[in-house]
Amino acid sequence: MSLASFKTSLRLNNKQKTLALKHAGTARHAYNWGLNICNEAMANKQKIPTSVDLHKKLVKEVKSVHKWYYEVSKCAPQEALRNLDKAFKNWLKHKHCQT
Question: Could you tell me if 27 and 76 are in contact, meaning their C-beta atoms sit under 8 angstroms apart?
């Protein structure tokens, strides 16, 4: 069986680079913000919020304070919070498997 691979490189202009960095920064901020909320919930022995719960809270509390969230696609923070939700589910699944 033969496997083929393709290497692709992006050649972004300065405007595109700036926009890509803004998306990455917004996603990173949303992920870290959500992680802090989840860690607080765990510390207080509360249920860990889902990505949907976190996104609703983010829109209500964070986007009004950080206007730069509106400079990028809404998908950047949403996907970051989905990734956080998946990470917590995987962590809890493996944590309970260990004896």
Answer: yes
Half-sphere exposure of 84 (CA within 13 A, CB side): 27
Instruction: Give the three-state DSSP class for 17.
Output: helix
Residue spans per domain, the chain: 18-97
Sequence-ordered list of residues with C-beta below 8 angstroms from that of 78, at least 6 positions apart, any chain? 51, 55
What is the model's pTM? 0.85
Q: Give the pLDDT confidence of 37-46 residue by residue, as tens digits.
A: 999 999 999 9
Query: How many angstroms separate the CA atoms of 82 and 62, rounded?
Result: 17
Residue whose C-alpha is closest to residue 76's, from 33, 37, 38, 29? 29
